[in-house]
Amino acid sequence: MAVSSTEQGSAVQTVNGRAAAMRDALRLLTVEEAGRRNRRTIDGVLIAFGALVLGLAAVAAANAPAQDEQVGKAIVTVLGWAEGLWRGIFIVTVGYAVLVVVDVFWRRRFKLARDLALALVLVIGAGMALGWAVESDWTPFREHLLARWGFPELRLAAAVAVLVVAGPELVRPARRLAAALGLLAALSVVALGAALPSAAFGALSLGLAVGALIRLTFGTAAGVPPTAHIRGELAALGVEVATLKPAADQKVGYATYVGTDAGGKPLRTLVLGRDAQDTQRLARRWRQLAYRDPPRSVAIGRLQQVEHEALATLMAAQAGVRVPEVVTAALGPEGDALIVTRLPDVTPLENANGADVPDSLLDELWGQAATLHGAGISHGRLNLRNVMVVDGAPVLSDFSAATLGAPASALDIDVAELLVACTVLVGPDRALRAACRGKGIPAIASALPYLERAALTPHLRDLARQHDVELKSLRAAAAESTDEKLPELAQIHRVRPRDFLFTALIALAAYLLISKLAKIGFGTIAEELRHSDLVWVVVALLLAQLSYVPQAIAFRGAVPTPLPLLPCVILESALKFLNLTVPASAGSIAASVRFLQRLGAKTGEAFASTAVIGLADTILQIALVLVLLPFVHVQLDTRQIGDAIPPGRFIVLIAIVLVVVIGAVLAIPALRRKVLPGIRSALSSLWAIARNRRKLLELFGGSLGKELLFALTLGAACLAYGVHLSLAQLLIVNVISSTLASLVPVPGGIGAAEAAISAGLVAMGVEETTAFAIALTHRLCTYYLPPIWGYASLHWLQRKGYV
User: What are the Cα distances from residue 730, in Å, to 405, 691, 707, 711, 747?
Assistant: First the structure.
């Protein structure tokens, strides 16, 4: 039977189609596209997490080899029966990583090949260094594939690093297989006896950290899906595109695609996948933690984020600001959130030549900013990277960080951001003249306190440093242009990374000092902690959290304005977080004042409340000591004080110092102006409260309840170690130790509080090592653990508008 040429051609096409489908099914790597690389904040977190786990694994391998070996033997006993399965998983994992490397080189993906080569070099170098540090073995390589290679397990670490680096560019089934194989391989090497648990954990963390470091350094396709995938998402949303490609300029936090629709009109698509959502969430959380600027009105979910950006863009357009037209903002069928706007693929104004930018364009740009702020909208990232010139006029884009109904400080930060961006482009003189013409001198003067690095977005901060923009000089020039005195900088930072380092160093110094003075080391302390009764530790933790209620009652009694109890209780929890990160009481005072102002209290009352509570606590503590001290037997070793200063003369010396300090305050006008108004305000507020029986009862009753609960917390901690003290003894120790710790200007009295509690317990007859273990347990319940839920409390107060 004859076959027509048409049928033959159809058969050939069918065969070719099936062959192409088979090739795609066997394909490991996605199609390479220009622009599919971006950096993600989450990779920085993975580096830190991997380094932390790697360090803990190294410590376990070096200091507890016997326990490590016992755990490994237990796993072999439980899982070793499936030796063939585990051997197959391990070999397949290593072979799969090798196959990925070969495929990368075969397809000539040179950038990815460079990343993989660097990752392998780093893994081998770090592994050899760790092997020398932990096991004194520079070359842990062995001939047999399943032999024990030491710490960390280099074969597993190399395979994990390869799969982490190449993972974002693998097709979805291959990527899921890589994730499963990595975890199973870690279990398999332990079950086979080819590695100890510490070596397996160290290998996983080393591979993860090195892979994340490479991705953060050179960028990654994670969070930038293939164009074909985005085409399908847009088609499902009813947006037909003629052309589409990843944008050349990708921003951290989401993927950007540019193209045209079926009618030839320009389209710009922003995509938030799960990776992009995690990146933006981490950036927001860090900003809330580290900075004091107003919270951004951005929702958490991906869909809510793009809907917020679309709403802010539409409201800006309604106010008369030139912004892109919004086509759609929705969730695609694959779970990606997309916002599509009509914006041509043009380079941002930031990349223009400053000499070619006319003053009229700058004036119009500042006029657009004035219109935007007149509508009460803060852009959040008002720099020239988000300004496009279309038809000779500026268009503001990217409202993802916009704040609707923004406070004045947010608008001032916008002005400072735009002023620095214009200075980078055209210099300070032209930038200031255009700002004064377009936005107005009062707006520029109001933004002067925010002309600092902390107020700028990270992108503009780096750009200003690259172009040698001196912010101090710019601030002085702006003050001169507005005929204003140079103001003090706004306090933007709440906490810096160096504050965490400072706190850690204080804790280390405190431990070394206390252990030196008490002649006890970590071994004896750990031995005491090991024998504690966990039930009483849990009781102590619960009692410490109950103290928030009387503290909130005392806080209510410190101001005449009526306050709801629940927000006050949550505020006391949030202050635990602030006191951990901010030295002295600056953070708690600022939060308390802001809280009271939001609830209608007068500014004077708000500032005096802290002094009122402090004065009430002092009065109550003195009364408790005077009443209870005659009934408490104290064992003081005066030999530790020394014979040079007898107790009587020592008391006289303290009295003389107090008299000198009070005399200096009264005699020196500068000190008098700073100290006396606060004391006078506190005494005035206390007198007003003293005339109100209910407020007086709340103030002193809450303070007494707080002291009792802290004493009971200390008592529960004592019972955890078999120490029995009376309530009077507990109150004396707690009051005196808290007073001494408050005199040390470090966050939370770290070190001083532990030393004071230990000394107080020793004076009550408790053995030194036990006393220090009790002090650590008490501080764990009252200071070190509460900031964990204190951060959640602070976030709740911010979300509800209380701070």
Answer: 51, 32, 10, 5, 24
